[in-house]
Amino acid sequence: MTRLLEGFKIVAIALALLGLAACSSKDKPDVAAVDVENATPGSQRDFTINVGDRVLFLVDQSTLTPQAQEILRRQATWLRQYGQVTIQVEGHADERGTREYNIALSARRAEASKNFLIAQGIEPGRVSTIAFGKERPVALCAEESCFSQNRRSVTVITAGAVAG
Predict the structure, then answer these.
(1) Which one of 2, 43, 143, 144 is most buried, counting C-beta atoms within 10 A?
(2) Cβ(148)–Cβ(56) below 8 Å
(3) Spatial distance between the Cα atoms of 52 and 70, rounded to a whole number of angstroms
(4) In 55-90, which positions are buried (b, 16+ CB within 10 angstroms) versus exposed (e)?
(5) CA angle 54, 60, 63 (to 5 degrees)
(6) Residue 142: HSE in the Cβ half-sphere, 13 Å Cα cutoff
(7) Cβ neighbour number for residue 33 with a 10 Å cutoff
(8) Distance of alpha carbon 71 from alpha carbon 78, whole angstroms
(9) Could you give the CA distance from residue 137 to residue 144 in angstroms, rounded to a whole number?
(10) Distance, CA of 61 to CA of 35 (rounded, Å)
(11) DSSP state of 43
(12) Closest Cα partner for 42 from 79, 94, 95, 2?
């Protein structure tokens, strides 16, 4: 029995040390800094990393929050700089509610984002929308932490971006 307890102690110490090692950030590069360095200006990666390609919505809402408006303003600035780029705004919803309801809600979210971009001076012909409803979640769990990530619109470059 004593040997078994000593074995458990050794395993517990080893797991604790592994946990500490995993939490250590020493000698690890800053992932965000590496990504920014590798983002070619005018590319999808540049747009996603340096501008932000998604905005989040509150429960059962298609109204843009102040944070969403700020991201869309940055998107509009970037899109004015790269006038050859066309985009599609994808609307999404969390899994609560019927499929039909969530398709309609996600369509309103995509349209709200599109209309804001147009109001910021982006030509309507450069922006299309699509509604996915709850069909493409980015987070899967039955908690608010997942639901909130799935209530979104995502701006995807469809043409004209620089490779990279």
Answers:
(1) 43
(2) yes
(3) 10
(4) bbbeeeebebeeebeebbeebbebbeebeebbbbbb
(5) 55
(6) 0
(7) 9
(8) 11
(9) 13
(10) 32
(11) B
(12) 79
The tokens of 149 are what?
């990530």
Residues 62-91: tens digit of each pLDDT:
999 999 999 999 999 999 999 999 999 999
85-125: per-residue pLDDT in tens? 999 999 999 999 999 999 999 999 999 999 999 999 999 99
Closest CA to 68 of 162, 161, 154: 154
What's the DSSP call for residue 64?
Answer: P
- The two tokens of residue 102 are 């969530």
d(Cα 160, Cα 44) in Å, to the nearest integer?
10
| C-alpha closest to that of 52 among 152, 163, 135, 129 | 152
Distance CA 62, CA 91 (A): 10
